[in-house]
Amino acid sequence: MCLPETGYDQEQITEVTVSDAQSGKKEMTVGMDLMKLHSLRLAWALLLVLPGSIALAQSGQPVDDDVEPNVVPNVEPASEANGDAEDFGPNMVRVAEYRDPLIGLNRAVFAFNDVSYRYVLVPAARTYQNVTPDPVKQGIGNFFYNLRTPIYALNHLFQGKPDQTVRDLGRFLVNTTVGIVGIFDPADTWLQMERQVTSAGDTLAQYGVGYGAYLVLPFIGSSNLRNAGGMLLEMPLNPIEYLMEEPEGTVVRVFDNFQLYSPMIQSYLDITEESEDPYIFMRNLHIQGIQRDAAYAQQEREETAQ
Is residue 224 predicted with pLDDT exceeding 80? Predict the structure, then answer.
């Protein structure tokens, strides 16, 4: 059989083929380089913040908390005066001061967040919650939770909880297939496989890593160095990084965070309205949560050891 003439000789065809292959390889290399650059930029940000924060934590001055009581939980067991000592949990006590080494940076970011919440995020969250039908919001939330499930499974594995890791992966398999890419949650409704949310920050805490210092993140709000570092560790594990190109991937991740926190962010104005110093109030609330979780984790370890 004779092939039709194309007007190109064999050498030209070979050159075009090699050129296309080299072009594809070059695009792949550029894509990988961009991913590496993105990861390195995040790592450098953490490395720049961490040493400075540690130094500040060692030399920081006490913060004047006369504005409001600085309420944090005591790690001692509850007393009989509090009612049922076994069920009550850690006591809540006042402390005179808390060293806030990043207070200058935190207050600046907090002021930015305050304006963003009041005039952008809170109105947007209210609109989303009021306009979007509940079944649609539920399906969107289920979909994004299912995407994050492998990250939860990996963290549970590193936390020494292989049984929960198996349940996480089982949930992911069932909901991705039967639940139509996670839009529905038959693993919970049919199989009673409840959600167990965790994070790399929890994993670091499991290995004795302290929270470091209170840190206010843009848009996200109250956090700490340990949780911020955990977020950086989890970023390359997010499936969206590999399923979508930029900038679409960033838009989807932003929307994921928005839909996740929109029910809670609406209460921001109510929480801070009566506070004389909203920054101190939100900071103490966050530290209170850290201390409470640490106290309960300690109680759980002691009960397991008995």
Answer: yes
